[in-house]
Amino acid sequence: MDYLTILQILDSALRLATPLLFACLAGLFSERAGIFDIGLEGKMLMAAFFSAATAYSTGSVWLGLLAGIAGSLVLSGIHGLASITFRGNQLISGVAINFLASGLTVLIGLSWFKLGGQTPALQGDARFQGLDLPFAEALSGVPVFGPLYSEVLSGHTILVYVALLCVPLTWYVLFRTRFGLRLRAVGENPAAVDTAGISVVGLRYAAVAICGVLCGLAGAYLATGLGASFVKEMTAGRGYIALAALIFAKWRPWYALYATFLFGLLEAISNRYPSLDLGFVTLPSQFMQALPYILTVVILAGFVGKATPPRAGGEPYVKER
Q: For the segment 243-280, what is each residue's pLDDT rounded down to a tens digit?
């Protein structure tokens, strides 16, 4: 494997890790506030459909992005209503959202486009285009750093850079602001927050809304940045992989970046080498394609006990009279 191949794999890994990173940070906000969200997958799928459908209909990828975020926020609102207001089971609500999104996207797609649940291919301004970072060409000749900057970091769509910027922003909001302190407190001890005169319900709805926006960005990127249309079930389990990455990252933003990049790297390797010859054994294509999912199972089996979730996570808050 030469240096150019490594750069191409890293470039692909960064693109593939972006929707996982958005979804992982979405889950982080929600779960830090005590709302477990299995419905990341469904929200991403709904956002992917509406972003692609709107971008195709209007010819504007930005209107598509707004529509994707809106679609995700509607499902977030339903999840918030079920788990915060009506104090329902958060896991069942999340699973229901996944089923709802899976069925609705195909049904509406068939009705609107008559393409078996897909949207037509997006072209031109209906897709996010790659951006060249400043001095990318000038620095390409610098040993080691130059190719990394010009080949791996440069040339991605704007949402890749937004995802990377969301990591320090999430860290700052959660650990350096009053809002972040209250949000984390709601996930650990909502009664204490309520005693201080702060609305537990308001904070949890805020966290669920942020989760919806980030899932909207993830879904929109899948359909209008990484791909060029919406395809049935195109999230392909990424919402569940993001949840595994969140557990692996122990609910911390910087660790979430590393965890999602690891998943993206495995997917990039499986795409690059459909079957991998190690000399003494050849790994079949089925094994290579299953690599990210195998890692998900390994991480969940090995880290669930070691990673401590927010103490009030998954429990509806009932105000004492």
A: 999 998 999 999 999 999 999 999 999 888 888 777 77
Of the candidates 83, 72, 84, 65, the residue with the CA atom closest to the CA atom of residue 42: 72
Contacts of 42 (CB under 8 A, 6+ apart): 75, 94, 97, 98, 99, 100, 101, 102, 239
Q: Which domain holds residue 95?
A: 3-236
246 within 8 A of 3, measured Cβ to Cβ: no
CB 62 within 8 A of CB 54: no
> For residues 31 and 271, is the Cβ–Cβ distance under 8 A?
no
What's the number of domains the chain is made of? Answer: 1
Q: What is the pTM of this model?
A: 0.94
Neighbours of 176 (CB within 10 A): 10
Per the CB < 8 A criterion, the answer to whether 270 and 287 are in contact is no
Ramachandran category for residue 92: left, alpha or beta (phi over 0 → left; psi -120 to 50 → alpha): alpha
Is 250 part of any domain? no
The dihedral built from the CA positions of residue 72, 31, 206 and 79, taken in this order, carries a sign that is positive
Q: Is residue 291 part of a domain?
A: no
Select from 319, 321, 101, 133 the least CA-distant residue to 230: 101
